[in-house]
Structures are given as structure tokens and as C-alpha cells.
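Below is how a single chain appears once it has passed through the pipeline. First comes the sequence as given, then the structure the pipeline wrote out for it. We keep one example in the README because the format questions we get most often are answered faster by looking than by reading.
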Amino acid sequence: MGTSSRPRRFSWCLWCLFGCEIRCYYANDLKALLIDQRWNWRQDQALTRRVIAARLRGPACVENIDYRAERGLNRSVIRALAQESTWVANHEHIFVLGPTGVGKSYVASALTQKACRDGYRVYYTGAAALFQDLNLARADDSLRQLLRRLNRIDVLVVDDWVMAPMSEAERRDFWEIAEDRYQTRSMILTSQLPVARWHEQIGDPTLADGILDRLVHNAHRIEMRGDSMRKKKGEKEEK
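Resulting structure:
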């Protein structure tokens, strides 16, 4: 009986020697897991806040961009821009150009959403809405505060840029935005008009030169083409 109890005593000694170490190992693993989960939860919450604040147009993302349609999209260019959104870190701009309905807003939203995922603050607006907000802010003497808020945004997206000739107030306001963001922040501009037409749409030659000089020289251009995808979708639904 004394002999048979030796293995049990030996096992008990092993547990006493190593049991505490094993328990500490699992406790440390559990602590690390909880810390990781807490960090991931905070990151998810921060991303949700950034996406809500961005006011993106629809659930666009770069992974879902359709390259099958003949729209002039270069997959390698989009992937390079989406890679950690380095264009934002470098304070560069993106022009998404092309006729109506080809998906300019979707591409702009997808790149913007990727910037949100990479930790950048974004604000998406149409040109008409932006100038309306600026006019209202001027009327109630809050223009400077609005311009400061816009300047804190890492990526300002202006959809339907220069669709119509700009007024004196609009071009002066946008010159201030371009000046504030020069080499410090980024913009995405979508437009149906080629860059060569922007100067005449801005109007005043001096302000047009100043605005374009701050935008064009460090901008990536995505030039799209083809028929309206909305039109194609409507034709498919009719069949």
C-alpha cells in the first residue's frame, strides 16, 4: 500500500510544483485576450463614429468596386490608393472625373470609407450643399468656425464639383478652403467636367489660378468613361 501511494504522491508534487505556473500562464492568456477584445471594441466604436460623421453616400467599399464594366477603372491604381490610404498621409488629392451615371460617387465613397477604416476623419458633401452651408454660416457670423471645422477634417469630399459657374462668394470661400488644406489635408473632388474646364467655371482668373495651383499639382486623377450605369440598370429591369 505504501508502494502504490508513491505515484499519487509524485503526481501531487508535480501539481504543486507546476500547477501554479500553469494557472498563471492561463490567467495571463485570459488577461491578454480581454485586453485585445477591449482594444478591438474601442477600434470598432471609433470606426463607427467616423463613418457616421463622414455622411457617406451609401455602403460603398473598395472591395466591391466593379471592374467588369467598361468604365476606364484601373484596378492597380485603386488598390494603390486604398493601400493604407497613403495619399491622405501625403496630403494628396483625388479627382474622380467622368460623365453622369458612371459611378464617380461610388468610387469616391469607397476610397473615403477606406480612409475611415484607416483612422482618418472624413466629411462627404455635395458642392451645392457645401456652398449653402457656407452662405448660412456667413449670414449668422459663424463662417470662421465652419471653416475651422472643415480644416480639421482629414479628407473633404466634394461631389459634383463646378457643375455650374461659381459666384464671387463661392470662389472666395473655396479659395480659403483650398488654402487652409494646402499640404496639410486632402480632398476628393468628383466632376462631370474635365480639369481643363474648371478654370472657366471658377470664373475670376486670379482666384481660379490660386485654387487650381493648390489642387492640381499633387492630385491623382481617376478618369471614368462609358454609359450611365443607372440607365443600364433600368434597361435590365425593363427586360
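Residues 234-239 have pLDDT under 50 and may be disordered.

See the next section for the split statistics.
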